[in-house]
């Protein structure tokens, strides 16, 4: 298995300081990713994600808790395996891009179930892009045609380079066909991936992008029921990696595509609300990715089959990412110490801690 | 109204740095509380809490999302008023005390609904103790007998001094009758409240503690269905402030007391799961505190009436506390700047930010 971790490691960073929570800033996350190497990071992270999908039944699962507004959504995504607890705060605001802000920002926390104490706080904007791409690649490993080398990448925003690199690192994809309604977004991806070993074609339309692609990744950002991909553009035998349809009212695929595909999902109760299948009746048949990974059900079983990963992002994937970062952090020095937890000498004497702080102020 | 805030103030701390989230450490929270003064802090915070109860219907409300384990619970408590979003992470682990850890630790986040960006991260262990006490006092202001001066305080752990000071600051309570199964806990409270202007009696039993008390506060920590207070100890006309029964399997009052009382709650769907009324049938009648505050329903209406505030702690109270801290922070310097949000020059160029960081490393 890819980059498997030692599940028995519960508290790798032992500060012996009860008040301290290690914090990974954006700057330190970038340093960590660069130190490990993006493709190695994606490959090892995919290993953790796959490992946690494999023990799917040991997780406490719940659809994310969403607070919707006119402009976007703020979500909390908690999960626990009984030993560790993790959650992510993440927003989704498509209009942010026009204001110079990120569509998606995130941070996450890992905690010890036994004590309830947080043990890690980290930026997750970059980490979410990495884990989303790694999850797509894990799914494609089981669902895409054997030896798929060409991927159409429709939507060339913040996520697209990460998707490309994960598919390269984990599946060996080395040819990209790029399309975005904004050609400057495509130019950005071409510039950023220069020297990464891809053969890249800049396409003028979705039609052109899908030609010859065994994998089609849709990762557009507009919050609406869009039809990025119509049925006539989907040839037999391909794998569709549908990333962008991930909240109520936001889809990318024409429903006829769903009717012709085998649809694989992370956590059905959440995907039925947020994924492409929100267009379909409540009993629309789906297959669960974790069961494909454990071998309980078949993934791809036919050369002409259209497989569709209706990705919305699930809490266990963030949990895997938090575990991975925690393990990588040891000895790296790439974190700060946050004085986040009140730690009176005597646990019941919280007020006394305040009094002693006052005394200290007076004495100094 | 107490310490009313200006609701129109959305972003008081304007960093003009998109990546930065202000962080209030435990140390800075203590400094802030001491600078304001504990009783003033409690009074002003109670004003914010009351104000938010008054506009109860404008909040997006949901029972907290709990992850239960054998030893305790980890909870996320989100809410939003459509302009601000707030949530608290909080654990409850009664056994922690025996291991030198806090039963309850917490931190919280305030965010801007329009952009989804977090705007404040703060410790909330101390702040939760303050907001719980302030909420109790707000409820008692409407429910306790007029001119109640004597409070029995049963359970003398981490919350008890805060409860005492809130009732002093907001209701004028100046006599305390203390009891804890562990006399050293009571001694701690006596020591800590020396010079605070209370007449304090150390009692040998619950029976002794409740004698002559117009308000009885129960705030014990054991996770079990305990009977701290039995029916025969509850005289007519008193107000019971029941704090400790706040999660499934954790109650403090004999059910006969509930049958004789008018029971006031924060958010019924949550209290029926977590409060004293978890002992009662699903249709057990309760009154909502916010309706008492707005005047829609009566609070205390009879000298012989037993009023019971079945407090479990609700997300809007933490939201009020986050708002209050944010407003108090301006110009105080009592926060650090956390580099928590990825902020590429071009929002769609998240990967490019990573590349530029790499280039910077190579050049340096």
Instruction: Quote the CATH topology of the largest domain in chain A.
Output: Rossmann fold
How far apart are the termini of chain A?
57 Å
- What is the C-level CATH assignment of the largest domain in chain A? Alpha Beta
Sheet bearing the most strands of chain A, described? 8 strands, parallel
CATH architecture field of the largest domain in chain A? 3-Layer(aba) Sandwich
pLDDT averaged residue by residue of chain A:
92
Biggest interface between protein chains, with counts per chain?
A: A-B, 82 and 82 residues
- For the record, the count of structural domains of chain A works out to 2
The strand count of chain A comes to: 17
Strand content of chain A: 15-25%
> Helix amount of chain A, in percent?
25-40%
Pattern of helices and strands of chain A: EHHEEEEEHEHEHEHEEEEHEHEHEHEH
The CATH homologous superfamily of the largest domain in chain A:
NAD(P)-binding Rossmann-like Domain
Principal-axis shape of chain A equals: globular
The number of helical runs of chain A is 11
What multimeric state do the chains show? homodimer
Strand line-up across the major sheet of chain A: 9-8-7-10-12-16-14-15
The structural class of chain A is: alpha/beta
Radius of gyration of chain A: 22 Å
Contiguous runs where pLDDT drops below 50 for at least 5 residues of chain A:
1-15
